[in-house]
């Protein structure tokens, strides 16, 4: 009985103990289940067999999406999970092993894995693995790395900027006077790299007139901080070559730890070139401002960008009114084409000199202007705009018109008495021939030749006046060139006794041209050949017949023409400035007429000449083939 009671008591006690054990186990389960650290178990096949609530919360999966699946599905790096499983199977314990887990929402979680294996009788039961989330930490680190990278980048950029601008860096301590110069600062001052720089040496290098300016500015900055002036421009004499340079120094006050340990940190830049170009621009602006000519600049597409006082006087618009507007405002509608042609010449880099045209003013008046237009190029030689100098030549033009009218009138009045004079001379010659008066014949023939010369000159004046007014008319006819040439050569012979005049090669050529004007061309060329061969010699009036064309030339053995003069010979009123021919009479219009008459025939006058070796003037005309 006693034994039974004892047994009952023992059973009771056992049950009690069992109950407590179960309670503790439940508590433990509860603790593990609800632990804040994510936990999971993986079996020998790598399948997740259990995980706690924290694990699901951390990765975002539901139980049914996680339990029963291979752990490798939830790792971002397959080689990492393979390594983890390998180590665990080989009975290693993992401490803070870094890994990246895949969350349900597609994000990645950085974790540290701590894991060991539960073995029973040498058999792998399952892993016990808890993870610590270090995503925030990693993100912080990445941010820090990015920041460091950005900082390094800005530092590199700053370095490149400093190097490319040739900025020199300096530091100056106003309390101790310690001065530091970067390599480029030394370079600007021509100061040797090995030599120590002191504040006093620096001041000595400053131009004496600018020293106090610099000292005041620097001391002021050192005392009052960066609220006041923060730059100064001064001159220096370079240490190595004493060369004068302009410097711009800028600074910022920097406090190292307290107010008393402040430093001025700054830059210096050699601005000599800028200074000089500023001076040059100021001088140019003054010249342009005071010029009597209108000076205008415009972009390539014709927008006005600058306008001086004279432009305002000439065209009536103020700078404010016209800058930014198209140049077309100044061009009469019937001359717009002309501007396009000018632009095409300029875009080839050519200059347009003394181009006479008409422009329209603000109040609608047409004025005569002479334009000189040149391209504006940038440092690389690219055309970026155009500069236009316009001179108002309205008065000059009116004066010319009056002169032309006068010349035309005088020439016309002179022609009538000269025609009568020639007629009487011819009559007298006939009578002298009848009377066999040899002296009379010679004298009268000479008188007739001189009269013809005068007629030719008056003819030239009239032609010039007509040409100026654009009234020249070409009256073409068919004629035998040979007859014209022989007649002119004969007439010319009466003008000189010193020269031999020959004509050849023109037989059988028929031209369809203005006979009088071609005669005028040849007469001008021959009388020049006579005038400019003071020592005499051979003058040839020749033709070279080509296919459908004829080359007509006049050659002499005279004083010749320099290459520079050859270029300007055909300009109106141009005469060579040569002391040897100062006394030779002339007006500088003969060759201008020659070139104008020929251009109206679609031809061009050419000159080949060498000083003191004679000249050849030639041109081509189309010939007519006889049926
Ligand atoms: P001009 O009335 O002065 O002769 P032109 O127009 O006929 O005017 O000629 C212009 C200039 O060209 C002359 O002043 C002269 O210097 C030069 N010239 C013309 N023809 C010749 C020539 N055959 N030989 C040398 N110089 C010439």
TrEMBL record:
Residues 4-31 form a coiled coil. InterPro entries: HATPase_C_sf, HATPase_dom, His_kinase_dom, HisK_dim/P_dom, HisK_dim/P_sf, PAC, PAS, PAS-assoc_C. It is an enzyme of class 2 (transferase). Keywords: Coiled coil, Kinase, Membrane, Phosphoprotein, Transferase, Two-component regulatory system. Residues 353-405 form the PAC domain. It catalyses: ATP + protein L-histidine = ADP + protein N-phospho-L-histidine. PROSITE patterns: HIS_KIN, PAC, PAS. It holds the Pfam family PAS_3. It comes from the Bacteria. Its EC number is 2.7.13.3. The keyword Coiled coil applies. NCBIfam families: sensory_box. It comes from Pedobacter cryoconitis. SUPFAM superfamilies: ATPase domain of HSP90 chaperone/DNA topoisomerase II/histidine kinase, Homodimeric domain of signal transducing histidine kinase, PYP-like sensor domain (PAS domain). Residues 409-625 form the Histidine kinase domain. This is histidine kinase. GO terms for molecular function: phosphorelay sensor kinase activity.
């Amino acid at each position: 009985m006693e034994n039974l009671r004892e047994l009952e008591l023992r059973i009771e006690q056992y049950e009690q103990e069992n109950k407590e054990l179960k309670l503790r186990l439940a508590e433990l389960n509860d603790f593990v289940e609800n632990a804040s650290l994510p936990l999971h178990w993986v079996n020998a096949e790598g399948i997740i067999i259990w995980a706690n609530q924290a694990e699901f919360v951390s990765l975002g999966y539901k139980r049914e999406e996680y339990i029963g699946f291979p752990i490798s599905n939830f790792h971002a790096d397959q080689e990492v999970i393979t390594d983890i499983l390998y180590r665990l199977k080989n009975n290693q314990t993992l401490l803070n092993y870094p890994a990246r887990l895949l969350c349900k929402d597609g994000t990645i979680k950085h974790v540290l894995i701590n894991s060991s294996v539960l073995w029973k009788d040498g058999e792998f039961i399952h892993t016990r693995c808890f993870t610590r989330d270090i995503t925030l930490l990693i993100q912080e680190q990445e941010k820090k790395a990015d920041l460091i990278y950005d900082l390094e980048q800005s530092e590199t950029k700053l370095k490149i900027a400093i190097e490319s601008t040739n900025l020199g860096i300096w530091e100056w301590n106003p309390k101790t006077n310690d001065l530091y110069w970067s390599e480029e600062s030394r370079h600007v001052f021509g100061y040797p790299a090995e030599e120590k720089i002191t504040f006093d040496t620096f001041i000595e290098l400053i131009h004496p007139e600018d020293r106090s300016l610099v000292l005041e500015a620097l001391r002021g900055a050192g005392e009052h901080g960066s609220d006041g002036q923060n730059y100064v421009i001064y001159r220096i004499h370079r240490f190595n070559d004493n060369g004068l340079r302009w410097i711009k120094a800028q600074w910022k006050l920097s406090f190292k730890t307290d107010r008393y340990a402040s430093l001025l940190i700054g830059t210096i830049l050699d601005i000599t070139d800028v200074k000089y170009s500023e001076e040059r621009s100021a001088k140019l602006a003054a010249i342009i401002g005071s010029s009597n000519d209108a000076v205008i600049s415009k972009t390539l597409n014709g927008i006005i960008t600058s306008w001086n006082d004279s432009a305002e006087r000439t065209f009536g618009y103020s700078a404010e009114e016209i800058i930014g507007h198209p140049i077309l405002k100044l061009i009469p509608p019937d001359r717009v084409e002309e501007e396009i042609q000018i632009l095409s010449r300029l875009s080839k880099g050519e200059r347009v000199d003394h181009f006479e045209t008409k422009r329209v003013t603000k109040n609608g008046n047409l004025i005569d202007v002479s334009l000189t237009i040149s391209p504006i190029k940038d440092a690389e030689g690219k055309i970026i705009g155009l500069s236009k100098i316009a001179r108002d030549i309205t008065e000059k033009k009116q004066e010319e018109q009056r002169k032309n009218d006068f010349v035309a009138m005088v020439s016309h009045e002179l022609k009538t008495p000269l025609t009568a004079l020639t007629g009487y001379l011819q009559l007298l010659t006939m009578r002298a021939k009848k009377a066999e008066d040899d002296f009379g014949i010679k004298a009268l023939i000479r008188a007739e030749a001189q009269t013809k010369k005068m007629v030719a000159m008056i003819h030239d004046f009239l032609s010039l006046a007509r040409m100026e007014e654009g009234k020249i008319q070409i009256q073409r006819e068919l004629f035998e060139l040979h007859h014209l040439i022989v007649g002119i050569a004969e007439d010319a012979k009466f003008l000189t006794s010193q020269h031999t005049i020959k004509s050849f090669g023109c037989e059988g050529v028929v031209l369809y041209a203005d006979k009088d004007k071609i005669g005028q061309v040849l007469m001008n060329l021959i009388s020049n050949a006579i005038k400019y061969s003071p020592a005499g010699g051979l003058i040839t009036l020749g033709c070279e017949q080509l296919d459908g064309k004829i080359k007509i030339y006049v050659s002499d053995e005279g004083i010749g023409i320099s290459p520079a003069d050859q270029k300007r010979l055909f300009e109106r009123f141009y005469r060579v400035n040569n002391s040897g021919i100062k006394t030779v009479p002339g007006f500088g219009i003969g060759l201008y007429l020659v070139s104008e008459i020929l251009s109206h025939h679609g031809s061009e006058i050419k000159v080949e000449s060498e000083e003191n070796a004679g000249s050849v003037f030639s041109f081509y005309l189309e010939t007519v083939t006889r049926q």
